[in-house]
């Protein structure tokens, strides 16, 4: 999170209005709801996990055991089961 001085980006009148509510504190102004990114879209984590899970399901259908998948993908048995038994 980047910090920006209010004096550098906000009009004086708006700063004075905000100061009626908060003085000398750090104020966080969140992004508007439409500007939020979904989890994993920026880092690529979501697509990585989707591809990994498809690979795990494919390997399981090809006859690789859950214990082997656990070792190959460095995941717990419970996680492998969640992946292979969900649609």
Question: Explain this structure to me?
Answer:
By secondary structure, this protein is mainly alpha-helical. The chain contains five helices and no strands. It has one domain (7-35, 44-85). It is 53% helix and 0% strand. The longest helix has 17 residues, at 45-61.
List keywords for this structure.
mainly alpha; 0% strand; rod-shaped; 87 residues
Low-confidence runs: none
Helix content: 40-55%
The averaged pLDDT comes out at 93
What is the overall number of helices?
Answer: 5
Q: Termini, distance in Å?
A: 37 Å
Number of domains: 1
Structural class label: mainly alpha
What is the ordering of alpha helices and beta strands? HHHHH
Strand content: under 5%
Biggest beta sheet summary? none
Q: Count all strands and give the number.
A: 0
Label the overall shape.
Answer: rod-shaped
Q: What is the radius of gyration?
A: 24 Å
SSE topology:
Layout: H1 6-9, H2 12-19, H3 45-61, H4 66-73, H5 77-85
Helix pairs in contact: 4-5
Brief digest:
The protein is mainly α and 87 residues long.
């Amino acid at each position: 999170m980047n910090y920006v001085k209010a004096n550098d980006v906000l009009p004086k009148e708006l700063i004075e209005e905000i100061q009626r509510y908060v003085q000398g504190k750090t104020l966080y102004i969140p992004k508007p709801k439409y500007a939020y990114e979904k989890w994993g879209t920026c880092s690529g984590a979501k697509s990585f996990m989707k591809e990994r899970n498809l690979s795990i399901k494919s390997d399981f259908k090809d006859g690789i055991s859950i214990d082997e998948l656990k070792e190959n993908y460095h995941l717990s048995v419970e996680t492998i089961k969640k992946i292979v038994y969900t649609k």
